[in-house]
């Protein structure tokens, strides 16, 4: 929150001290000469005598001229000014300002440095959390409910009331759960499984609405929604767009990765998709280039990372800016112009980059890391100066999720704990309102499609 102070307008009575004794200078004026302050004898001399030698100089000896100059200096006769004026207005007092503009500036708020707590607000147990870099087991929905997958079970934690409930426990034949992702409405949630199936659940009624099959050959480790399109990424390297409104749900397929797809993120506009894989590749896909009858060609194929690319985050204040993070053999955060495919900057973080989140109201980026510190690092963008390092986890911080108001961040690590951090300061009302906009119409069809 901004902190500031206000200055009262300066009045006429404040500009003068009461019962002030005037000095002789107060009788002088800058433009009208003051007779009482003038030397009339000197003025007469200057007007009648001293001017005689200037237009018609009289020849004199050098010694006489030198004597005349010394005499004039001694008697202060070298003055050239006759009239007496006030030279300059008095210097304003430092404690009282007579400038209207300075009063306006005083009323402007002065932004204070935000306090960033160095410890987590809350720590929750997360037993049986799978310690796997390539999975995505944590997500925070728009209705302020946190979903986390622990082995074969998906749990829901209501951040508003602190209540915990179990959504689903799958069989060993289909589990463990390999990914979870809330739909934009904050009610429906997709669950990726180890056997390649994807389930769609209604969290309000704890009802399984649909199971998507045939998308992949093996586990589904990454998910993301684009309105009614659920995009899935598998260990088989395939990316599939599923329209959940229709029975034949597979509408587009993206092929470009040779190994597991571990990162998927749609841009805010829904026009571009970023995908990262265990093959060290980052792809940018454009929906305008999608093809129903054939495999879609990527817009950009980016090969600068030297390890798996899981951490992806689209910038909230610049639509074509994407941040990506590399694994243990890379350790870099890279920034991309997704229109041109150019790398804008690369920062070596010194450790495995597991997840990335942008601050919704400030130009800041949060990253989570593995060995050796297992920390969360807050960066100032674009300078990439470290603002804070948050420690507490004793194993790599694999997953992060951001609350709908943009204020709190949840982190889950291989140490089987879930921690809540108040790292992004006070939320903005506009961001909170936008995050809670429900998109319910596409999901009305789910109850009719089985």
TrEMBL record:
SMART domains: WD40 (SM00320)
Region described as Disordered: 1-27
Cellular component aspect of the GO annotation: anaphase-promoting complex
GO MF, one annotated term: anaphase-promoting complex binding
PROSITE patterns cross-referenced by the UniProt entry: WD_REPEATS_1, WD_REPEATS_2, WD_REPEATS_REGION
Spans of repeat WD: 170-211, 254-286, 390-423
GO aspect biological process, one term: positive regulation of anaphase-promoting complex-dependent catabolic process
Role noted for this protein: Component of the anaphase promoting complex/cyclosome (APC/C), a cell cycle-regulated E3 ubiquitin-protein ligase complex that controls progression through mitosis and the G1 phase of the cell cycle.
Family: Belongs to the WD repeat CDC20/Fizzy family.
UniProt-recorded name of the protein: CDC20/Fizzy WD40 domain-containing protein
């Amino acid at each position: 929150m901004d902190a500031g102070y206000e200055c009262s307008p300066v009045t006429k009575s404040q500009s003068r001290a009461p019962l002030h004794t005037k000095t002789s200078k107060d009788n002088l004026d800058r433009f009208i000469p003051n007779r009482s302050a003038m030397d009339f004898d000197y003025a007469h001399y200057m007007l009648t005598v001293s001017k005689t030698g200037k237009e018609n100089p009289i020849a004199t000896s050098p010694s006489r001229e030198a004597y005349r100059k010394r005499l004039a200096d001694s008697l202060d006769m070298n003055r050239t000014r006759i009239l007496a004026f006030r030279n300059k207005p008095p210097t304003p007092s430092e404690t009282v300002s007579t400038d209207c503009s300075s009063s306006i500036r005083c009323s402007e708020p002065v932004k204070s440095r935000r306090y960033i707590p160095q410890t987590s607000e809350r720590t929750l147990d997360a037993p049986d959390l799978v310690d796997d870099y390539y999975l995505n087991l944590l997500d925070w929905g728009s209705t302020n409910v946190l979903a986390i997958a622990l082995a074969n079970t998906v749990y829901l934690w209501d951040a508003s009331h602190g209540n915990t409930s179990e959504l689903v426990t799958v069989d060993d034949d289909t589990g463990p759960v390999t990914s979870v992702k809330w739909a934009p409405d904050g009610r429906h949630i997709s669950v990726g499984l180890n056997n390649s199936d994807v389930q769609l659940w209604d969290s309000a009624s704890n009802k399984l609405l649909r199971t998507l099959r045939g998308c992949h050959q093996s586990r589904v480790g990454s998910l993301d929604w684009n309105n009614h399109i659920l995009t899935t990424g598998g260990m088989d390297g395939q990316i599939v767009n599923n329209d959940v409104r229709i029975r034949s749900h597979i509408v587009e397929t993206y092929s470009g990765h040779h190994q597991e797809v571990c990162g998927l993120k749609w841009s805010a506009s829904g026009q571009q998709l970023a995908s990262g894989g265990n093959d060290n590749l980052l792809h940018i896909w454009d929906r305008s280039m999608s093809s129903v009858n054939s495999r879609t060609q990527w817009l950009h194929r980016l090969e600068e990372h030297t390890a798996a690319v899981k951490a992806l985050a689209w910038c909230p204040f610049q639509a074509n800016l994407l941040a990506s993070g590399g694994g243990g053999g890379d350790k870099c955060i890279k920034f991309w112009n997704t229109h041109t495919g150019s790398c804008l900057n690369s920062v070596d973080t010194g450790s495995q980059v597991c997840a990335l989140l942008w601050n919704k109201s400030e130009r800041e980026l949060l990253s989570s890391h593995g060995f050796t510190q297992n920390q969360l690092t807050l960066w100032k963008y674009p300078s990439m100066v470290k603002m804070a390092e948050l420690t507490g986890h004793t194993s790599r911080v694999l997953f992060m999720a951001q609350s709908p108001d943009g204020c709190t961040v949840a982190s889950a690590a291989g140490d089987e704990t879930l921690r809540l951090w108040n790292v992004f300061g006070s939320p903005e009302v506009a961001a909170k309102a936008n995050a809670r906009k429900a998109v319910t119409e596409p999901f009305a069809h789910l109850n009719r499609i089985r």
